[in-house]
Amino acid sequence: MAKSAKDPKKSAPDALINKKAKFNFELSEFFEAGIVLTGSEVKSLRDKKGNLTDCFAKVRNGEIFLENFQIPPYVNGGYANHPEIRPRKLLLNRKEIQRIDRAIREKGLVLIATKSYFKNQKLVKVEVALGKPKKLFDKRDDIQKRESKIEVERALKERQRK
């Protein structure tokens, strides 16, 4: 079966991506979750407004809530507009919530929002990942590897030009 042109796993132009997540955390397991939003929040996300930078999730009473997901008020929202930052409920299966809760409690992992996108142009989905915070030396290693990779690519380009 051929894949459709709009694959939600690939970053679509209307996707919000948390770029700091890969830098600050070792991400291990990814989950796709629905999110409970109001109408003005969805309209604001359709305008490509929102910020996932400091976004994380917590388990409360068997439910997962997304904290610090900044969705600015919709411009034409009027009096019924939404607050910019509030806890938003994520929609996952009970077994997935239990697995995430167990990993957070036993392994000391953190649940981080990595991406938010529209699936089939209708439903807002949030990709969350279990991650372990990186130490400072891990971040330095990543930077060093990235810089060495860039240098090798530059050297190959120069070699191909000659």
UniProtKB/TrEMBL annotation:
One of its GO terms (cellular component) is cytosol. Transmembrane segments: none annotated. One of its GO terms (biological process) is trans-translation. GO terms for molecular function: RNA binding. It holds the Pfam family SmpB. It is found in: Cytoplasm. Keywords: Cytoplasm, RNA-binding. Its main location: cytoplasm. Belongs to the SmpB family. Required for rescue of stalled ribosomes mediated by trans-translation. Binds to transfer-messenger RNA (tmRNA), required for stable association of tmRNA with ribosomes. tmRNA and SmpB together mimic tRNA shape, replacing the anticodon stem-loop with SmpB. tmRNA is encoded by the ssrA gene; the 2 termini fold to resemble tRNA(Ala) and it encodes a 'tag peptide', a short internal open reading frame. During trans-translation Ala-aminoacylated tmRNA acts like a tRNA, entering the A-site of stalled ribosomes, displacing the stalled mRNA. This is SsrA-binding protein. It comes from Leptospira ryugenii. The gene is smpB.
